[in-house]
Amino acid sequence: MTALDLDWGQALEWGVRWERLEAPERARVIEAKPRQALRDVPRAEAERLLAAGIARPGGTANTLELAPDFHELHKLLRALSRTLIDGPGSAMSLATYLREALSAERRSVLLATRRPSYGGDLVGMLAERVGSAAHVRGFLSAPDRLAWMRQRDAPPPLQSWSHVRMPGNEPSVRDEEDVHDLSRLVEILIEVGGMTPGALAQRLPDLQPDRLGRAVRAALRCVLAVAGLDRELRLAIAVWPSVRERLLRAPAGPPAEAQPAEDFCLAWRLEDLTQLVVRAAEPLRVKADGRALFAAAEKSLESELAPLPEWLAEDRSLRAGRGPRLAVALARAQDLHLIERRGRSGRDLGLVTSRAGWSWLEQAPDDRLRGLLDLQRAAPAGEDDLDLPDLEDLLDLELDGDELDPYSGRRLAAWKLASASPFSPYGDPQVVRAAVAAGSSLELGRAV
Question: Residue 325's closest CA among 341, 308, 310, 309?
Answer without folding.
Answer: 308
